[in-house]
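Hi support team,

I submitted a single chain yesterday and got back a structure, but I'm not sure I'm reading the token output correctly. Could someone confirm the output below corresponds to the sequence I sent? I've pasted both exactly as they appear in my results page.

Thanks,
R.
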Amino acid sequence: MTVEIREGRGVGPKKDHIYLHLDHLDPTMLHERLPGITESARVFSGVDVTRQPIPVLPTAHYCMGGIPRTITGKQSDRLTAILTPRYPA
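Hi R., thanks for writing in. Yes, this is the structure output for that exact sequence:
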């Protein structure tokens, strides 16, 4: 996404975003399985995802929890009694 926008292939008046097309998917499935995306697109972009593409920008995902790890990636001692030792992928 970032490369496309930086190289001038973005869309919109400022060419600062790209479009995510979901209009090929069944509207019932979109409303049942992606209600948050459907609502966010409607509220923030005025887009009906069943008929229009969603303007999107590159972003970073962030971590919201998980299994505590040591600095070497091993499971923290706090959960050893609960979980078998596992390493993150």
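A quick pointer for reading it: The two ends are 25 Å apart (CA to CA). Let us know if anything else looks off.

Best,
Support desk
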